C-alpha cells in the first residue's frame, strides 16, 4: 500500500503538510520526553520552537517563531507542530526510550527492568521466554538486542502458552533456514 501522495505544494491530497519543519532551540524544554495532548500513550522529543519565513527572510536570513513547538515521536522520523500548552513532561521511567510507548520499559535504562539470565525460562534457537513486567514475554534475539514478540499472564497457563508460542516460532525459524 502506498503512502500519502504529495502535491507540488508539499501537502498531501488531504491537506496534510509534509514539508520539513523549521525550528530553533526551545529553552525550558530540557526533559528527555513529553506527552502531547491527543497522542496519549506515545512519548515525544521536543525539537524546538517552530519558525517560518516572513516577508524579510529572503534578504535577512531570519525566520520568525510561530508560537508552536516542533515535536517528534520517540523512534520516529516525522516532525509535528503542536501548541506548547498541549505538551507535558514525562518522567524517564514513564516511557521506553527505544519504542516511545508510555508504560513500556524494555529499554534497559537505569531504574527499568534489567533482564537477568535467571529470568529466562525457555530458549530454542534465537527465540526465548523470560519474565518481565509481571508477565511471561516471548522474545526474538537480534544482533544488538532482543525484541518482544508477545506477552502472557504470569500464571501456569500463561507460561504454557508463552512456551508453546516460542516453540512454534523456533520451529518456523528452523524450517525457514532449511532445518526440520
Task: Tell me about this structure.
This protein folds into two domains: 22-94; 117-176, no CATH class. It is 14% helix and 34% strand. The chain has helices at 57-60, 156-176; strands at 22-24, 33-36, 44-53, 63-73, 79-82, 87-90, 120-124, 127-132, 135-141, 146-153.
What topology does this entry show?
Blueprint lengths: L21 E3 L8 E4 L7 E10 L3 H4 L2 E11 L5 E4 L4 E4 L29 E5 L2 E6 L2 E7 L4 E8 L2 H21 L4
Antiparallel strand pairs: 1-3, 2-6, 3-4, 4-5, 7-8, 8-9, 9-10
- Portion in helices: 10-25%
Strand content: 25-35%
Largest sheet: 4 strands, antiparallel
Q: What would the principal axes of the Cα set say about the shape? A: elongated
Count of helical segments?
A: 2
Number of strands: 10
The N- to C-terminal Cα distance equals 34 Å
From the alpha-carbon coordinates, what is the Rg to the nearest angstrom?
Answer: 22 Å
Mean pLDDT: 81
Q: Kindly give the count of domains.
A: 2
The succession of helices and strands, N to C, reads EEEHEEEEEEEH
Low-confidence stretches: 1-11
Q: How does the helix and strand content classify structurally? A: alpha+beta
Largest sheet: spatial strand order: 1-3-4-5
Amino acid at each position: 500500500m502506498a503512502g500519502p501522495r504529495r502535491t507540488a505544494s508539499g501537502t498531501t491530497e488531504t491537506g496534510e503538510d509534509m514539508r520539513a519543519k523549521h525550528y530553533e532551540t526551545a529553552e525550558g524544554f530540557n526533559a528527555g520526553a513529553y506527552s502531547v495532548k491527543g497522542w496519549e500513550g506515545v512519548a515525544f522529543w521536543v525539537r524546538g520552537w517552530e519558525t517560518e519565513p516572513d516577508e524579510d527572510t529572503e534578504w535577512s536570513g531570519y525566520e520568525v517563531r510561530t508560537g508552536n513547538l516542533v515535536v517528534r515521536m520517540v523512534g520516529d522520523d516525522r516532525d509535528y507542530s503542536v501548541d506548547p500548552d498541549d505538551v507535558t513532561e514525562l518522567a524517564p521511567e514513564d516511557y521506553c526510550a527505544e519504542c516511545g510507548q508510555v508504560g513500556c520499559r524494555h529499554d534497559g535504562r537505569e531504574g527499568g527492568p534489567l533482564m537477568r539470565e535467571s529470568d529466562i525460562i525457555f530458549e530454542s534457537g534465537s527465540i526465548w521466554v523470560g519474565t518481565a513486567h509481571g508477565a511471561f514475554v516471548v522474545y526474538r534475539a537480534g544482533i544488538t538486542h532482543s525484541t518482544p514478540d508477545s506477552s502472557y499472564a504470569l500464571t501456569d497457563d500463561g507460561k504454557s502458552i508463552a512456551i508453546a508460542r516460542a516453540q512454534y516460532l523456533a520451529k518456523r525459524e528452523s524450517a525457514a533456514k532449511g532445518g526440520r
